[in-house]
């Protein structure tokens, strides 16, 4: 039986496939985005976790020094540690994000050829809220794995829930929410506006998609970096301020990775396996977004809020370009196949 869609593809009903198109295109966009820029994101996370008091003479490592150190310790794949969290979470999160975004665009009248930065930005904000409910816990786990802690995703999640409760998985959600509101507003409105100027016809134009996405991601990423620093600190605050302990390699832990070392735990080698001493739950260093920003400013100065801004821009410029280009191309291709 032939199935054809004779109406506009933006209008979704159960009898038509545009909603599924947005989900499929969004899922693919999310996977491509996160995997392609993951090494840069790992470097950014390490830079933002460096603690350098205002009067300290210790020089923090830049992006190249951080990358060199990580690769020297464990090889190039060290930069991809934790990437599985993004593969699992980005599929449903981005499918939901782009589906909600397209529905809101139509409802707000942002799908016309005219410039509609406020309507587009509002659609992006609503889509971001739904996206963050899924991504926040996995982002917490991702950053802890990037820093070299825990044996894997499940080990990290179980340990966090046991030691910190479910609150540990969502402790940065308010910060993520307040960061992503301006980020999404800036990124989406900039992306949509530039895209309409460069490609008023609405036809597939990869060059326009890449350029508009790159500019939008760079601008939004730079302006929201201070909030991202606070979010990273909140998500990793239960970890030791020192480097993860390198334990003796063995059959169960061939690379000698620190399985878990928050301030409350110590790790010792006991052949032929690694043993964890008794765990003791410790209080959080930061009580929330405002407290984190106050402590960072008081202890490390205003410069601390711009740590990792270079890698963050290098993350968001290509990630937005790749993600939105993938989405726009697949969306139009899938829509064309139904006509």
From TrEMBL:
<dbReference type="GO" id="GO:0015093">
    <property type="term" value="F:ferrous iron transmembrane transporter activity"/>
</dbReference>
<dbReference type="Pfam" id="PF00153">
    <property type="entry name" value="Mito_carr"/>
</dbReference>
<dbReference type="InterPro" id="IPR018108">
    <property type="entry name" value="MCP_transmembrane"/>
</dbReference>
<keyword id="KW-0496">Mitochondrion</keyword>
<comment type="similarity">
    <text>Belongs to the mitochondrial carrier (TC 2.A.29) family.</text>
</comment>
<feature type="transmembrane region" description="Helical">
    <location>
        <begin position="206"/>
        <end position="224"/>
    </location>
</feature>
<protein>
    <submittedName>
        <fullName>Mitoferrin</fullName>
    </submittedName>
</protein>
<keyword id="KW-0812">Transmembrane</keyword>
<dbReference type="GO" id="GO:0031966">
    <property type="term" value="C:mitochondrial membrane"/>
</dbReference>
<dbReference type="InterPro" id="IPR023395">
    <property type="entry name" value="MCP_dom_sf"/>
</dbReference>
<keyword id="KW-0472">Membrane</keyword>
<feature type="transmembrane region" description="Helical">
    <location>
        <begin position="168"/>
        <end position="186"/>
    </location>
</feature>
<feature type="repeat" description="Solcar">
    <location>
        <begin position="17"/>
        <end position="107"/>
    </location>
</feature>
<dbReference type="GO" id="GO:0048250">
    <property type="term" value="P:iron import into the mitochondrion"/>
</dbReference>
<keyword id="KW-0813">Transport</keyword>
<feature type="repeat" description="Solcar">
    <location>
        <begin position="115"/>
        <end position="197"/>
    </location>
</feature>
<feature type="repeat" description="Solcar">
    <location>
        <begin position="204"/>
        <end position="333"/>
    </location>
</feature>
<keyword id="KW-1133">Transmembrane helix</keyword>
């Amino acid at each position: 039986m032939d199935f054809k869609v004779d109406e506009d593809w933006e209008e979704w009903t159960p009898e038509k496939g545009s909603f599924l198109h947005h989900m499929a295109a969004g899922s693919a966009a999310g996977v491509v985005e996160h995997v392609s820029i993951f090494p840069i994101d790992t470097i950014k996370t390490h830079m933002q976790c460096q603690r350098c008091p205002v009067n300290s003479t210790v020089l923090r490592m830049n992006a190249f020094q951080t990358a060199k150190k990580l690769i020297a310790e464990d090889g190039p794949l060290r930069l991809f540690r934790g990437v599985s969290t993004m593969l699992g979470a980005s599929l449903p999160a981005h499918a939901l994000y782009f589906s909600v975004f397209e529905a809101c665009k139509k409802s707000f009248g942002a799908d016309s050829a005219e410039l509609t930065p406020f309507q587009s930005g509002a659609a992006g904000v609503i889509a971001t809220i739904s996206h963050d409910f899924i991504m926040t816990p996995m982002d917490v786990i991702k950053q802890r794995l990037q820093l070299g802690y825990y044996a894997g995703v499940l080990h990290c999640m179980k340990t966090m829930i046991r030691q910190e409760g479910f609150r540990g998985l969502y402790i940065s959600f308010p910060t993520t929410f307040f960061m992503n509101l301006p980020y999404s507003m800036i990124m989406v409105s900039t992306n949509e506006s530039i895209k309409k100027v460069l490609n008023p016809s609405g036809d597939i134009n990869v060059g326009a998609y890449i350029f508009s996405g790159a500019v939008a991601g760079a601008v939004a990423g730079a302006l929201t970096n201070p909030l991202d620093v606070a979010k990273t600190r909140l998500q990793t605050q239960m970890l030791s301020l020192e480097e993860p302990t390198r334990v003796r390699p063995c059959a169960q832990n061939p690379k000698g990775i620190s399985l878990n070392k928050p301030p409350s735990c110590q790790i010792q080698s006991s052949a032929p396996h690694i043993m964890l001493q008794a765990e003791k739950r410790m209080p959080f260093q930061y009580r929330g977004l405002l407290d984190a920003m106050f402590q960072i400013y008081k202890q490390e100065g205003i410069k601390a809020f711009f740590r990792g801004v270079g890698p963050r821009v290098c993350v968001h410029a290509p990630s937005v370009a790749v993600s939105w280009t993938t989405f726009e191309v697949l969306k139009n291709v899938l829509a064309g196949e139904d006509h």
